[in-house]
From TrEMBL:
Annotated HTH gntR-type domain residues: 5-73
The UniProt record lists the keyword DNA-binding: yes
Pfam families: GntR (PF00392), UTRA (PF07702)
UniProt GO molecular function: DNA binding; DNA-binding transcription factor activity
Record keywords, A-Z: DNA-binding, Transcription, Transcription regulation
Stored CDD domains: WHTH_GntR
Protein name: GntR family transcriptional regulator
InterPro entries tied to this protein: Bact_HTH_transcr_reg, Chorismate_lyase_/UTRA_dom_sf, Tscrpt_reg_HTH_GntR, UTRA, WH-like_DNA-bd_sf, WH_DNA-bd_sf
GO biological process: negative regulation of DNA-templated transcription
Lineage, top ranks: Bacteria, Bacillati, Bacillota, Erysipelotrichia, Erysipelotrichales
Length: 237
């Protein structure tokens, strides 16, 4: 026996199918409420329910007076992996990296997180994460030079992965602590690398990474493009 499907679900599934197949692309306008009402022989409430669900799920966005449009694909993190690259690949993205700089610096905040003297010299790695040829995030990672030296960090140009670079010297991240907030992007270099306007709000994440012995091995700050990024958390009761 064929299971009856709610009309709003049918509308949602067919729009999602068109987006996934490429028939509808980011920025395309979807059919209006009146068109969908006639097409599916449903009420305005049913169409609006479908639109609301699709907007909440990040597939569409509405512009008052103009209509409803296909949104850019977001990276929806399920917090299932501490590797950003692995999550992107699992979600079907084509990933790449631009290494902005690898240098020795002083940073009192990072030094405190790493358990070092405020004036200690740190290895700082700055890089842009690319997903489907668009800047997704700007990472700034700090290390104790005794954990990862500038010379060792150079292999990042070949591995294209921080975790692969760490694995080469026998360091394996085990777990992380992350703090999420919203922060405007004002640093000129980050503005340019992320291709956004100065003052653009971003998801700002402070991350402390630990090894299997609960020793801190990295402190990182990351700006995520708010238009391409969201987080979902599953909580079991």
């Amino acid at each position: 026996m064929r299971t009856k499907i709610n009309k709003y679900r049918q509308i949602e599934e067919e729009i999602i199918a068109d987006i996934k197949s490429g028939k509808l692309k980011p920025g395309d306008k979807v059919d209006s409420e009146s068109v969908l009402k006639k097409k599916y022989n449903v009420s305005t409430i049913t169409v609006r329910k479908a639109f609301t669900d699709l907007i909440n799920d990040g597939y569409l966005y509405g512009v008052q007076g103009l209509g409803t449009f296909v949104a850019k694909k977001q990276m929806i993190r399920g917090l299932t992996s501490i590797s950003f690259s692995e999550e992107l690949i699992q979600l079907g993205y084509e990933v790449d990296m631009i290494i902005d700089s690898i240098e020795e610096v002083e940073n009192s905040v990072a030094s405190e997180k790493l358990g070092l003297d405020p004036h200690a010299t740190l290895v700082c790695i700055k890089r842009v994460r690319i997903a489907n040829k668009e800047p997704m995030a700007y990472h700034i990672s700090y290390f104790d030079p005794e954990v990862l030296s500038c010379e060792q960090a150079q292999s990042l140009y070949e591995t294209r992965s921080l975790y692969k670079t760490l694995a080469q010297i026998g360091i394996y991240p085990e777990w992380v602590n992350e703090n999420y907030s919203v922060k405007d992007i004002n640093e000129p270099n980050v503005v340019n690398q992320m291709n956004v306007k100065k003052g653009t709000p971003s998801f700002f994440i402070k991350r402390v990474t630990f090894d299997e012995k609960d020793k801190v091995i990295e402190y990182a700050e990351t700006y995520f493009n708010r238009d391409n990024y969201s987080v979902t958390v599953n909580i079991k009761v």
